[in-house]
Design a protein that fits this description.
This protein is α+β, with helices and mostly antiparallel strands. The protein is built from five helices and eight strands. It has one domain: 2-Layer Sandwich (Peptide Methionine Sulfoxide Reductase, Chain A). The strands form two sheets. The chain has a six-stranded mixed beta sheet, covered by helices on one side. The relative contact order is 0.23.
């Protein structure tokens, strides 16, 4: 296994994005958190208020020998709705924006290419996914980590939103889904 690389992705609710990324081949770790805002060490309540400028996001540790950054971005773009500005479904506000947060400037060209590929494959459906950063990452509170595997299985919101995203992953990216 190669040295893990990092991707930071915001696709609405971090519980949903975390659940999808945990099922992707080559993904070794997923951490929910906050990025892109002004307030140091924000809390979930503060971020949800929409006043800090942060997005709910996931920091993904992935093995580039198993999945490239470009492939990971294609999965990300294909499993949420990148055409919705500052929202995903019923979640509305900048904290739910679609964004690729750069870990370093070396990721910019691949992020731009992923958005271009998505747009080219869907004429008339232009992505509003922002490319932001690099900027400070703040891990979310412990109870948000691995949420779908625990509390999320009993949360009506999660039960309504996560299974369709997982089905989209399995349908559109079969070769990228972990076995089991």
């Amino acid at each position: 296994m190669a040295e893990l690389q990092t991707a930071i992705l915001a696709g609405g609710c971090f519980w949903c994005t975390e659940a999808v990324m945990n099922d992707v081949v080559g993904v070794e770790s997923v951490e929910s958190g906050y990025i892109g805002g002004d307030k140091p060490d924000p809390t979930y309540k503060e971020v949800c208020s929409g006043t800090t400028g942060h997005a709910e996001a996931v920091r993904v540790g992935f093995d580039p020998d198993a999945i490239s950054y470009a492939e990971l971005l294609d999965v990300f773009m294909g499993t949420h709705d990148p055409t919705q500005l500052d929202r995903q479904g019923n979640d509305v506000g900048t904290q739910y924006r679609s964004a690729i947060f750069l870990v370093d400037e070396g990721q910019r060209a691949e992020a731009e290419a992923a958005i271009f590929r998505w747009n080219a494959d869907r004429p008339g459906q232009q992505a509003v996914t922002a490319i932001e950063g690099p900027t400070q990452w703040y891990p979310a509170e412990d109870y948000h980590q691995e949420y779908w595997e625990g509390e999320g299985q009993r949360n009506p919101y999660c039960l309504a939103t996560i299974p369709p995203k997982l089905m989209k992953l399995r349908k559109s990216f079969q070769a990228r889904v972990k076995a089991g």
